[in-house]
Amino acid sequence: MSQNGKLMPNLDQESTKVLNLTVLRRIDPFVEEILTTAAHVTFYEFNIEQSRW
């Protein structure tokens, strides 16, 4: 168990990659590979018409 009380699986790097790829393929079956991973991400969407994020 981690410090915040959540149960964390004990997976090696390859198992984690396979699991993540499986989840992504449920959403998009055409995903071929994971190029990189990050602990935290932020997704921004740019509005071209208003030139705003």
Automatic annotation (TrEMBL):
Membrane spanning stretches: none
Pfam families: DCP1
Top-level taxonomic group: Eukaryota
Family matches, as InterPro entries: Dcp1, PH-like_dom_sf
Recorded GO CC terms: P-body
Protein localization: Cytoplasm
Alphabetical keyword list: Cytoplasm, mRNA processing
Cytoplasm among keywords: yes
One annotated GO biological process: deadenylation-dependent decapping of nuclear-transcribed mRNA
Main localization of the protein described in the UniProt heading: cytoplasm
GO MF: enzyme activator activity; mRNA binding
Family label: Belongs to the DCP1 family.
PANTHER family documented for this protein: DECAPPING PROTEIN 1, ISOFORM A, TRANSCRIPTION FACTOR SMIF DECAPPING ENZYME DCP1
Name of the protein this chain belongs to: mRNA-decapping enzyme-like protein
Organism: Nymphaea colorata (pocket water lily)
